[in-house]
Amino acid sequence: MRISRAAIRYSKASLEYAIEKKVTSIIKNDFEYILLVLSNSDELNKFLPNPVISSRLKLDILHRIFPNLSKTTKSVIKLLSNKRRLSILGQVAEDFIHRLKIYEGKTTATVTTAIPLNEELKALVQEKVKSISNKLDVELINKVDPSIIGGMILNIEGKELNASVTNQIESYRRSLISNKNIA
Known about the structure:
Elements: H1 5-21, H2 24-39, H3 42-47, H4 55-65, H5 71-82, H6 89-103, E1 106-113, H7 119-133, E2 137-144, E3 151-156, E4 159-164, H8 165-178
Parallel strand pairs: 1-2
Antiparallel strand pairs: 1-3, 3-4
Helix pairs in contact: 1-6, 2-6, 4-5
């Protein structure tokens, strides 16, 4: 998801406030729950950016959908409502969680493989990611994509290491095409 500059401003302010009040984990849990609901509700994703529906009605419905949110998270949602920015709620939540991970010295790495990694390989990849990223806490996400045939594609903090068989075959293909002097 692309994060707008407005969402970044709101998430930064929310994170600063959460750190000051020592409620980062509470707000993180609330935002994770909001993201879960948003990812499973097409209706809500169409409802929030709808300019015809008043911000007050959107706020009331969000309070009904999320009655157990913390007071701080509800105040962030109310601020977004007052500024007519409820359409970026998901972006604010996602960016808040991302910035909190950075603040806490954590990172997320995605490893794409042709088959699921077993626990031993996950631990090995996780240790390698720790040494590459200089982070002590690494969350490893394993995505399965049989089209890479074998090997892996590792994404860490916006950097990609493509060691897939498909990538190597494509590299050889490009090399053979560019070298037309082969007899």
